């Protein structure tokens, strides 16, 4: 029977980090609930690792406070905080067996020999490596090494599990497999987890909530669905999934002008602006036979991506190329080929509108 790890709530209040005159984190406020798996997602250099290191106490914040449960951990050294951590590179002890690697943290908290043995075999079973206990790290595959690193981090049953791009050194197949393994393990143990990644697919697939970061600030926090369907900024819209952007001028009320056409919007518009950016996902644009839709265009390119075909359509009366995803059956019905004229419709409830 697996011992349930007690997840604890983490509160980050007004955390800022300066390196000299460079501000790596501006003012971060974030609460992570017990048992949640939260992904920090954002482009390289946006501050993900810095924030994770501050949570671990490996880096000292320039301002702000951190609480784990009711415990103020703002000034505590790493050894007095309750977390396990896994980095991108495996960082296992090369001269220790799998068993000894996993047991490492248990010895330092003074656990007895018999208990350690039981805990290690429980963890080995959990990560599916019971037959590899006596091997050394160099005798394991990359994916197996990361599983051992995970078991080592989980061994003392920490309240918080911190993972900094733990899968990015692995090949795609192993990465996909480990994603769901980590996810299942995390839910089973109930351990509050933060996973840092710059891979949006990984974040959307694994997270309960995604924290999208850019330039040292949090752009948006939400469930994968919220982040994908209701991006709050053009940055989030562009960073997560594919998105078409269309420059336009706001008119009265919920109307905007694109070229010499007017469009009605359903979603909220930003506060008064001279110009706005409309955005629409490739799968939300409808293609239809010539004569049926609002816009006319020409098929410029078609890429077969398995489940759908990614087409590029050049609109005739505005200077604009749109990326449109179409399922193979509709493509057949429309007799879609490069060079063909086609009509398209932009459903108003699929149009997002951001400040330019
Ligand atoms: N010790 C340091 N001294 C000076 N600048 C630093 C230091 N550590 C990080 N930075 C800077 O802070 C910014 C954020 O770095 P961080 O490592 O948190 O980014 P990241 O989001 O984890 O990026 P990546 O996806 O590439 O790992 C970067 O511009 C980086 O150069
Ligand atoms: Mg990083």
UniProtKB/TrEMBL annotation:
GO-annotated biological processes: quaternary ammonium group transport
InterPro entries on file: AAA+_ATPase (IPR003593), ABC_SmlMolc_Importer (IPR050093), ABC_transporter-like_ATP-bd (IPR003439), ABC_transporter-like_CS (IPR017871), AminoethylPonate_ABC_PhnT2 (IPR017666), Mo/tungstate-bd_C_term_dom (IPR008995), NA-bd_OB-fold (IPR012340), P-loop_NTPase (IPR027417)
Species annotation: Marinobacter zhejiangensis
GO molecular function, one term: transmembrane transporter activity
Record flagged with keyword Transmembrane helix: no
Keywords noted in UniProt: ATP-binding, Cell inner membrane, Cell membrane, Membrane, Nucleotide-binding, Translocase, Transport
Any one GO CC term of the record: ATP-binding cassette (ABC) transporter complex
Domain ABC transporter intervals: 10-240
Name of the protein this chain belongs to: Iron(III) transport system ATP-binding protein
Domain of life: Bacteria
